[in-house]
Design brief:
By secondary structure, the chain is mainly β. Strands 1, 2, 3, 4, 5, 6 and 7 form a seven-stranded antiparallel beta sheet that branches. A two-stranded antiparallel ribbon has the order 8-9. A hairpin with a 5-residue loop joins strand 8 and strand 9.
């Protein structure tokens, strides 16, 4: 699978699947928020292009306060930190009227900042200096590392 987009081809879209409640939020999300009013949710990151969808190893987590719409979100690559991608990205504290609006806001802000939230599709072995090989993530439609 190639990770480069061609000029005449539209990049695949990456979005979140259905947000589901979770009792096991990541340590990044727990560190970002606390409080009795906070509910935790998680959703897979799914790729799509030309009507086809595929699963990725990436996901998003959301801590959301229904009382005032306050939220923090975490994107997880699913493969840990690599030279090409961080293992996790944590949002700033913000507000949104619904959980889906909160995730959409997180994705939109990251895209506007030049780091779209994508999904890792596979790992490939790449040369790692004189020490041998390491795993590198592949994201369909994107050249890594992202700018």
């Amino acid at each position: 699978m190639k990770s480069m987009a061609t000029k005449d081809r539209v990049r695949p879209a990456y979005r979140w699947a259905e947000l589901l409640p979770t009792d096991e939020p990541s340590r990044e999300l727990i560190a970002a928020v606390s409080g009795a009013d906070v509910r935790h949710f998680t959703a897979s990151v799914v790729g799509s292009e030309d009507g086809k969808e595929w699963q990725t190893s990436s996901w998003v987590e959301l801590a959301y306060r229904k009382s005032d719409g306050g939220f923090r979100a975490v994107w997880k690559s699913g493969v840990g930190d690599t030279p090409e991608l961080p293992g996790a990205i944590v949002s700033d504290w913000s507000t949104a009227p619904t959980r889906d609006d909160a995730i959409a806001q997180f994705f939109d802000r990251q895209r506007a900042a030049g780091f779209p939230l994508v999904g890792v599709c596979e790992l490939i072995k790449v040369r790692n200096g004189t020490r041998g090989y390491r795993d590198a993530p592949v994201v369909l439609g994107y050249e890594l590392p992202l700018p």
